[in-house]
Amino acid sequence: MTEERMKKNEENFQKLSIKKPDKVQYGVFSWGPCIVHLRISDDFKKVLLEEAELSRKKNLDYREKLAGVIKEEYSFHSKEKVLPYISQCLGIYDQAWQKFKNVFYKPENKPQYLLSALWVNYMKRYEYNPPHDHSDELSFVIFLDVPQAIRDEQKAFIGNSGGPGSLGFLYGEGNRQAITYQATMPQTGDMFIFPAWVKHYVAPFYSDVTRISVSGNVANSIELNKLNEHNKAKFVKIKGEDGPKR
Question: Among 75, 96, 143, 155, which residue carries the largest CB count within 10 Å?
Answer without folding.
Answer: 143
